[in-house]
Write a structure and sequence with these properties.
heterodimer, A: about 575 residues, alpha+beta, eight-stranded antiparallel sheet, 8 strands, B: about 100 residues, mainly alpha
Chain lengths: ~575, ~100
């Protein structure tokens, strides 16, 4: 198909990069925002703006709150008929389902605490299966009071899932598309290096005064090379994190027999009961178990707080409590789990030291998921992610610049369509994110289903940006710039400033307060980042306006320009 | 670059080989590798974690090779044949261990 190795790599880089690039830039951008997902949560939910809290008392705070949780209506409606066997007896009504599993989770950046109940399904079709209807809640750990369920945590429940699933849960298709995008990212890095032999020189090459095509390619190469190990690492570990569950689930299919045999052996080794006994039993003080777990961690010279806590087989004689350590002081995502008998609080099992393979794995995935406490590194992640966005965006620009004169002459619309899609995924995406924040502050706080309105605003604004990008794209077909780039940068600047002003007006947490008088960096950080984004957007507007004016050539000039650049590309 | 020499059927066959053919081979490699390591006494989850990490690098290599190899027939023969062989090997090893 191709004449040589380099040509095949160029083809691969160009076309996969273009098609998958539209997905990749979304993954990179929302991945960058997810680094500060909890901070976006605070910005979006003003009544949760207080300091992060440690895991509160289970006996006094968590247990009463867990007992108030009901099975989720949608989960019940969708899954109960699948799990329950009508031949064995009648369907249990939703609110009468027995609790089978409790969990609670917090991190060093969480003022509020997530918790949930897995409710058992009586008379299940497959009694050995994972028969759970879920119910989740978020509480203020200081009081145990529930935070409203229809409020959306914009950072951790919208930007973060956007990063790994495009918020498209149907058949997990979003996750698989992101997985393919990660593979293509790896391939684009390898093929990009092959294409450009002069990797070291490109590290230092940026000629902003040259015409757009040349400077776009310089910037594409520079951002691609400077963050190459970072990008390779994130695409690879992204695949590894979801590998066993989604991308290569050999253990769930072809090797299920081998895997299940291992589970039985493992259960026998740990002594943790896999099944409920069917005999009711009370729950002993979990606080006492937590205290013992903390003592044991301290004994291993890794004193710490509880990050995750789980009660299995609630109310049963076989109930056991698993206490996991919050890993905020190390890269590897480790739990150091300690397990206690629920009815007595006696120690059942301590997770053994990890094997070298799982140490490598936990280090790699921990470095991707960054639950550790390191603010400088957190910002470097954002920088690396945004460099990835720049790399992809300049790739789009280069693709269009290289072809648009040719296409204009031939009268084809290819570069016009690509350019409009690039506007949609570059500036349109930023408009969607900032538009969502503005909607969050404009919608009344007590609006029912507020989160759904915010999601609608996100996609609605994005769709409008796409429409605008296509409507304004005609000049590209004449080898000129699409004014939508400039206009959408104005929109970004306006929305970002509006979001900061609205936050100050509706919550009273303006920057003077959050930075100086009553410092609260989570909200101040989002506000300041929005203002910096607005500043960059205005700078880009000015630059684009200059370029648009400079390139209003007569047709004759356009011809000479294009032959000049053709010569330059041949040399470049 | 002579893009006009590229034909859609050839491109589709390459892309299908790169994505689906390489995936099938990678699956077979992971399954056979995990089964073989477990057979050699490696703990199951260690075998799984280690093989999956290698498998994604292999996937990348196969994906790239699907486009660089001159003969499309060879690409499909290696990917489909290798996938079938590895898949069978995984099945046979698992059967032997569980027996």
């Amino acid at each position: 198909m191709f004449q040589n190795f380099r040509q095949s790599m160029t083809w691969l880089h160009t076309w996969f990069g273009l098609v998958i690039g539209f997905v990749l830039i979304v993954v990179f951008f929302f991945g960058s925002l997810s680094v500060f997902d909890r901070e976006f949560d605070r910005w979006a939910l003003p009544d949760t703006r207080f300091d992060p809290q440690p895991m509160p008392s289970f006996d006094q705070v968590l247990l009463p709150a867990l007992q108030k949780i009901e099975p989720d209506e949608a989960d019940y409606a969708a899954n109960m008929p699948l799990l329950h066997d009508p031949a064995k007896g009648p369907l249990t009504p939703r609110i009468e389902l027995p609790a089978d599993e409790y969990w609670a989770y917090t991190t060093h950046r969480d003022p509020v605490l997530s918790m949930g109940v897995g409710f058992g399904v009586p008379l299940a079709r497959d009694p050995d299966g994972h028969n759970h209807i879920h119910g989740n809640a978020t509480i203020d750990p200081r009081s145990g009071a529930a935070v409203r369920a229809d409020q959306l945590k914009i950072g951790s429940e919208w930007f973060y899932p956007m990063h790994y699933s495009l918020n498209w849960p149907w058949m997990n298709l979003g996750i698989f598309i992101v997985g393919l995008a990660a593979l293509v990212m790896l391939a684009a890095l390898v093929s990009g290096v092959v294409m450009h032999r002069k990797v070291f020189r490109e590290f230092f090459t940026f000629r902003p005064k040259k015409h757009t095509q040349r400077s776009a390619l310089d910037l594409h190469n520079l951002t691609g090379v400077v963050a190459l190990p970072f990008h390779f690492f994130f695409a690879f570990t992204g695949l590894v994190i979801f590998g066993a569950f989604y991308f290569l689930p050999v253990s769930q299919f072809q090797l299920k027999g081998l895997h299940d045999q291992h589970e039985v052996v493992e259960a026998a080794e740990t002594g943790l009961p896999h099944q409920a006994a069917g005999v009711p039993a009370p729950l002993a003080s979990v606080d006492a178990m937590v205290a013992q777990a903390k003592q044991r961690w301290a004994g291993r010279d890794m004193a710490g707080e509880v990050g995750f806590l789980m009660v299995h087989h609630v109310g049963d004689a076989n109930s056991y409590v698993s206490v996991y350590r919050a890993g905020s002081d190390r890269v590897a995502l480790v739990g150091e789990g300690i397990h206690f008998k629920g009815s007595t609080g006696e120690l059942l099992f301590e997770d053994p030291p990890r094997s070298p393979v799982s140490e490598v794995n936990e280090f790699l995935t921990g470095l991707h998921l960054q639950h550790f406490e390191h603010w400088l590194l957190r910002w470097l992640y954002v920088l690396g992610g945004l460099l990835g966005c720049m790399c992809i965006a300049t790739g789009f620009v280069f693709f269009v610049e290289k072809r648009k004169r040719q296409h204009a002459k031939a009268g084809v619309q290819g570069s016009r369509v690509v350019d409009a899609l690039a506007v949609t995924t570059v500036t349109g995406m930023v408009i969607a994110a900032t538009g969502m924040l503005v909607a969050n502050r404009l919608l009344p706080a007590d609006l029912a289903g507020k989160g759904d309105w915010e999601k609608a605003a996100f996609f609605g604004v994005w769709a409008l940006a796409m429409l605008h990008a296509f409507v304004r794209s005609a000049p590209v077909a004449q080898a000129r710039l699409n004014p939508a780039w400039r206009e959408q940068c104005w929109t970004i600047a306006a929305l970002a400033v509006a979001a900061v002003l609205l936050n100050g007006l509706t919550t009273g947490d303006h920057l003077v307060k959050t930075v100086f008088t009553d410092t609260y960096w989570a909200v101040a950080g989002v506000d300041l980042s929005l203002l910096v984004s607005a500043g960059i957007a205005v700078a880009v507007v000015r630059l684009l306006a200059r370029r648009e004016q400079a390139q209003c050539p007569t047709p004759a000039q356009a011809d000479t320009n294009s032959s000049d650049s053709a010569a330059e590309v041949a040399h470049g | 670059m002579k893009h006009h020499t590229l034909r859609w059927p050839a491109i589709t066959a390459r892309v299908a080989a790169g994505v689906f053919g390489s995936y099938a081979f990678t699956w077979g490699f992971a399954a056979a590798g995990v089964a073989a390591l477990v057979g050699l006494g490696v703990e199951y989850h260690d075998a799984e974690t280690g093989m999956l990490m290698l498998a994604f690098l292999l996937f990348l290599g196969l994906f790239l090779w699907s486009f660089t190899a001159t003969s499309l027939l060879r690409v499909w023969t290696v990917l489909a044949g290798g996938a079938a062989l590895l898949f069978t090997a995984a099945w046979a090893i698992q059967r032997a261990i569980l027996a």
